[in-house]
Amino acid sequence: MPNRRGIGAGTLYRHFPTRDALLEAVYRAGVERLAAAERELAEALPPIEALRAWMLLFVNYIAAKQLIAPALNTLVGGPSKLFEASSAQIKGAIQALVERAIASGDIRPDLDPLDLLRALVGVSNVASAPNWAQSAKRLLEILIIGSRPQNIQ
Q1: Going from the N-terminus, what domains does the chain have, and what CATH number goes with each?
Q2: What is the pLDDT of residues 25-35, one digit of tens each?
Q3: Which terminal Cβ of the chain has fewer Cβ within 10 Å, N or C?
């Protein structure tokens, strides 16, 4: 039976023959949006603002991923291969943004982009709490302030 947009189950199954294929496509699309956002933000914003905006997108991405995590964990062979393939894109995005912010003097030169990424995953754990978005924004600001060179704070 078609939905309001006239798309029926047959159309869905032609593009995604299994539930796993659909879940993988949803996950990959999110990762690709994050990678594209890094480039777009770097072109449109000053380095520190681009980093801040991407970090917020990442937290929202992790929050959304938590919604589909139980389904991802049921993938045949587990989600680890899917996560491994996408981690390079995410690491590349934050690496580029941090390097740009270091070059501009907005971020201290000893900041490891992977440490910042790990901290963002921790920030994302508030996603199940009430008013989590406001809390995540406050925590992101703490990360940004803590990442600045001593003379800028």
Answers
A1: 9-147 (1.10.357.10)
A2: 777 888 889 89
A3: N
